[in-house]
Structure formats: C-alpha cells, structure tokens
Design goal:
The structure holds 2 protein chains of 2 kinds. By secondary structure, chain A is an all-beta fold. Chain A has a single domain (about 5-105), classed as Immunoglobulins (Immunoglobulin-like), CATH 2.60.40. Chain A has no helices and 10 strands. Chain A has strands spanning about 5, 10-15, 20-25, 30-35, 45-50, 50-55, 60-65, 70-75, 85-90, 100-105. In chain A, strand 4 (about 30-35) and strand 5 form a beta hairpin. Chain B has no helices and 10 strands. Chain B is globular and about 40 Å long. Chain B is mostly beta strands. In chain B, the strands form 2 sheets. In chain B, strands 2, 4, 5, 8, 9 and 10 form a 6-stranded mixed sheet that branches. Classes of the chains: A mainly beta, B mainly beta. The interface between A and B is medium-sized, with 21 and 23 residues.
Chain lengths: ~110, ~120
C-alpha cells in the first residue's frame, strides 16, 4: 500500500501566524484528502484535492501528484485551528491510507 | 441518514468478553471503512468494504477481529475475547468512490471501547 509521511509531527503557533504542513506519499494517487481532527476527536474533511490548488477561507491546499506531495497552508491561525491534521491519499480503488498526522497547537 | 452513525458511542467491557460495534453509513455510499485510533495515535486501517467486491481485511490485527457488511448498508465490527490492548476509539467512514465528484470520506463520531 501507499506509504504516507507528514511533517512536522508537532507544531506550536502563535495566534495570527501562518504555517505550511507537508504530506509526502510513495505512489501515484487519484484521491487525496486533508482532515482536521478537533480536540473532541471528530474528523472533518477539509479538502478533497487529488491535484491542483483549492482554497477555503484561511486554509488552502496544493497537491502536486507528479512529485508525490501535498501541502496544507494555514494563514492567520486561530486557537480553533488546534488539533491534528491528517493527510489521506488513495491510489486506484485501494483503501484510503492515513498519515501519522501533524499535531497543531495555536496559543493566544 | 444525514451522516455516518455509530453505536454505541461508548462501550465498557471486561477482558475476555465479545463486543459488537455498529456502523450505519450514509445512504448510497458503496465504500465503508473501519479504523482504530489509540489514544494520541494516528488512524490504523482495519478493513475496507467496496460494493460487492471481496473486502480488504489486510488491517485486521488478529483473528479475534471480524467485520460484516449487509449489502451497501450496515456494518458490524466484532471483537472476540477482548484484551486490554483493544481499548481505543473505533471509527467508521463511508464514501462513494465510483463518483469522482463525491469521493470524500465522511466519518462517524466513533465508539470509545474500554476493556477493563
């Protein structure tokens, strides 16, 4: 199956700061999703982004499938952005594999 | 239903007992996943159902774990002779991967399993 690496594993930001989270994957994909797991454990789908760039408010994501990586940008971070961010690629009709996540803490 | 529903939300059991966890996917979603998440850890794949294809069971950690799915509807994850290391949140997700515009994975709220 696809191997997924996320970096950094942990990140502390001052409120208002910007950051970039990275996801590298080992094989070609036709599906890549970014999730946010809030402190209560609920997983929310942020982006479905097999290629290209998408933006949603303060968040945006870019996937370069040919180079096997995806980036999640967080701008003007807020305390509500705290939690764990997971990258989850899938190749063909195989299972969706999750990375180990980036744990983000935004401090006021 | 409107979202993925899991029950029970919490389950406390004694070591050695069997447990059944239930997942109701979003109506029309052909794909269904079970994941396990231990405290402070990532999501560990358990099993994947896709339509009428044979399920991908490659993530089941032992023969004490099994799962069934009735058509494209409800799924049940069964853990026999539970052990303390089975304590975790069990998450279910569904999607419709055959529809390119609707391949997003939607998660339930999970079942918190505690084995005493």
């Amino acid at each position: 199956g696809i191997q997924v690496e996320q970096s950094p594993p942990d990140l502390i930001l001052q409120e208002g700061a910007n950051s970039t989270l990275r996801c590298n994957f080992s094989d070609s994909v036709n599906n890549l999703q970014w999730f946010h797991q809030n402190p209560w454990g609920q997983l929310i789908n942020l982006f479905y982004i097999p290629s290209g760039t998408k933006q949603n408010g303060r968040l945006s994501a870019t996937t370069v499938a040919t180079e096997r990586y995806s980036l999640l940008y967080i701008s003007s971070s807020q305390t509500t952005d705290s939690g764990v961010y997971f990258c989850a690629p899938r190749g063909g009709y195989q299972k969706v594999t999750f990375g180990t996540g980036t744990k983000l803490q935004v401090i006021p | 239903g409107a979202g993925v529903s899991q029950s029970p939300s919490n389950k406390v059991t004694e070591k050695g007992k069997d447990v059944e966890l239930r997942c109701d996917p979003i109506s029309g979603h052909t794909a269904l996943y079970w994941y396990r998440q231990r405290l402070g850890q990532g999501l560990e794949f358990l099993i994947y159902f896709q339509g009428n294809s044979a399920p991908d069971k490659s993530g089941l950690p032992s023969d004490r774990f099994s799962a069934e799915r009735t058509g494209e509807s409800v799924s049940t994850l069964t853990i026999q002779r539970t052990q303390q290391e089975d304590s975790a949140v069990y998450l279910c997700a569904s999607s419709s991967p055959q529809e390119p515009t609707n391949e997003k994975l939607f998660f339930g709220s999970g079942t918190q399993l505690s084995v005493l």
